[in-house]
C-alpha cells in the first residue's frame, strides 16, 4: 500500500513558511485491506472506507488506474467515485467489472490499482496549509474460471533455480505473486520492483546473489494481505521447496 501527499509546495512558498502553520495531518481516512480481488462473475468487490476523525466529515475520492498508472473508467469501475464520510463512521466503495471485462485475458489475472484520496474540510484558521494523503493498493481482476484453482496453495508452485551469481524466479501460475522479501541463509536480498510483483507465466532474474547450496526464504503476500513464507533448499543450481 502506498501513501502519497495530495499537494506539492512550490519553491516560491518556502520563504513564507516561517510565517505559515503547516498542518501535516495523519490520514483521517483508511481502508480495511492492502489489496482487493475482483472476481469475474461477481457483481463487485467491496472496500470499507473509515473516517477516524472525531471532529469533522471528510470527502473520499476513488478512482482506478491500469498497470501503467493511467486513470481508467473501464473495464472496471468504482462506485461511488466521490462520497462524504461522516466523522467516526464507515462507508463502502464497490469495484465492479463492466461487460467489457470479458475482453480481459480469461486464463490469467490482470493488474489494476485502486486509489483513494481523502479531501479534508476547509480549515477555519488562516495561513494553514493542509496536507491530505492518498492510498494506493493493487487490484487484481481474477477471471471466474480461476476460482477453483485459487482455492489451492498455488504460490507453492513458484520455481527457483540458482545460477552463477543469479537467482531465477519462475511463476508458472495464472496469478500474480507479490514478493516483498527474500533471504538467503537469513541474509536479506535486494530485489527490484519487477521481482516484487511477479506476473503470471513470467520469470525474473535477480543478479549478484549466490544461492547455490544455500537455504532461501521467499515471503509472498496472500489474498488477505498476510506475509507467508516459502522455504527452499538449493543443491547446486536446483532449488526444491521444503514443505
TrEMBL record:
SUPFAM superfamilies reported for this sequence:
PapD-like, Periplasmic chaperone C-domain
Q: Print the keywords alphabetically.
A: Chaperone, Periplasm, Signal
Q: Which InterPro entries match?
A: Ig-like_fold, PapD-like_sf, Periplasmic_pilus_chap, Pili_assmbl_chap_C_dom_sf, Pili_assmbl_chaperone_bac, Pili_assmbl_chaperone_C, Pili_assmbl_chaperone_CS, Pili_assmbl_chaperone_N
Q: Which residues form the Pili assembly chaperone N-terminal domain?
A: 29-146
Q: Which domain of life is it from?
A: Bacteria
Principal location listed in the UniProt entry: periplasm
Q: Short name of one Pfam family for this protein?
A: PapD_C
Which residues does UniProt assign to the signal peptide?
Answer: 1-27
Positions of the Pili assembly chaperone C-terminal domain: 170-228
**Where, subcellularly, is it found?**
Periplasm
What the record says about family reads: Belongs to the periplasmic pilus chaperone family.
Q: Identify the PANTHER family for this entry.
A: FIMBRIAL CHAPERONE YFCS-RELATED (PTHR30251:SF6), PILUS ASSEMBLY CHAPERONE (PTHR30251)
Which protein, by its recorded name, is this? Fimbria/pilus periplasmic chaperone
This protein's species is: Serratia silvae
Q: What is the lineage of its organism?
A: Bacteria, Pseudomonadati, Pseudomonadota, Gammaproteobacteria, Enterobacterales
Amino acid at each position: 500500500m502506498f501513501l502519497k501527499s495530495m499537494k506539492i509546495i512550490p519553491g516560491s512558498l518556502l520563504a513564507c513558511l516561517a510565517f505559515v502553520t503547516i498542518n501535516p495531518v495523519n490520514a483521517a481516512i483508511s481502508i480495511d485491506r492492502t489489496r482487493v480481488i475482483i472476481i469475474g462473475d461477481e457483481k463487485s468487490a467491496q472496500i470499507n472506507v473509515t473516517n477516524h476523525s472525531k471532529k469533522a466529515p471528510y470527502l473520499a475520492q476513488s478512482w482506478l488506474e491500469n498497470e501503467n498508472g493511467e486513470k481508467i473508467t473501464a473495464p472496471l469501475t468504482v462506485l461511488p467515485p466521490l462520497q462524504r464520510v461522516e466523522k467516526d463512521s464507515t462507508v463502502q466503495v464497490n469495484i465492479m467489472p463492466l461487460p467489457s471485462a470479458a475482453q480481459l485475458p480469461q486464463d490469467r489475472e490482470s493488474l489494476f490499482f485502486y486509489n483513494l484520496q481523502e479531501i479534508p474540510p476547509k480549515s477555519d484558521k488562516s495561513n494553514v496549509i493542509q496536507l491530505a494523503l492518498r492510498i494506493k493498493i493493487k487490484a487484481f481482476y481474477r477471471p471466474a474460471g480461476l476460482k477453483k484453482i485459487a482455492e489451492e496453495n498455488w504460490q507453492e508452485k513458484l520455481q527457483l533455480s540458482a545460477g552463477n551469481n543469479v537467482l531465477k524466479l519462475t511463476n508458472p501460475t495464472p496469478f500474480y505473486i507479490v514478493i516483498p522479501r527474500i533471504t538467503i541463509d537469513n541474509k536479506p536480498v535486494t530485489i527490484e520492483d519487477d521481482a516484487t510483483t511477479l506476473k503470471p507465466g513470467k520469470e525474473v532474474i535477480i543478479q549478484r546473489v549466490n544461492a547455490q547450496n544455500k537455504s532461501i526464504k521467499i515471503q509472498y503476500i496472500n489474498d488477505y494481505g498476510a506475509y507467508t513464507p516459502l522455504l527452499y533448499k538449493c543443491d547446486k543450481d536446483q532449488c526444491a521447496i521444503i514443505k
